[in-house]
Write a structure and sequence with these properties.
single chain; 252 residues; mainly alpha; two-stranded antiparallel ribbon; disordered C terminus; Ferric siderophore reductase C-terminal domain-containing protein; 2 iron, 2 sulfur cluster binding; FhuF_C
Amino acid sequence: MRLDALATDGARLDTLVASRAQGLATAHRDVAAGLVLHDLVWRVTAPPLATAVVSGIAPRLRAEGITLVHDASGACTGVHLHGLDAEVDADLDRLLRRVRDDVVGTIEGLLPAFRSRARLGMPALWGEVADTFAAALQWLGDLVGAPRAARDAADTLLDGTPPLRGGTNWVPVTVAGASATHRVRNTCCRAYRLEQYDYCAGCPLLDAEDRLARFRAITEASADAAAGGTADAAAGGTADAAAGGTADATSC
């Protein structure tokens, strides 16, 4: 399904949301719509960030040049970028800013269609976009062995400038010598309303003490799994686990 069709074809979007709700075995279509949005933002955001960091090249995103692949459950399983120009820049900071601006420009036209279906206001929807952007950068930083640089880049890119409201909200945690950097989400994914999921460790609805306890438990478990190593875990949470294995599944 081409990305631009989701902004103009309400029936196709409704069908996709219904499939996602059925796949999650839930009657909460607003939650399913939020997860559909998360799916597509991840697929739009992660590839250009990855090519920018690894190769110094980024596709110039346009909604009509992006086709999403969904399975029968409505989960987004892939993305095809086609007919897009690319930008080459040795200045990584400048290239990442270009990716951020392209993501904003590509997603901006879609959000009104999700507003009523997800039952979220525009600030909350943009908070979800910021959350996914931060999660993608942290995942990429862990993947290439530069977690601190990735977090610094996220701090610079997610500076609260409208419309991409919401910061990175990092929470460093050390437990028995094991360290990890977690994140408090800007927008609740509401997946806790699904029977099979709990609150994300970084859910903004939790009080700070509860979040910290969950972060500490994740850090300790990661350290045990790594035989005492240091883990950097993103706390973006249940939305990513429900989305089918993106960066933050370790934090649920």
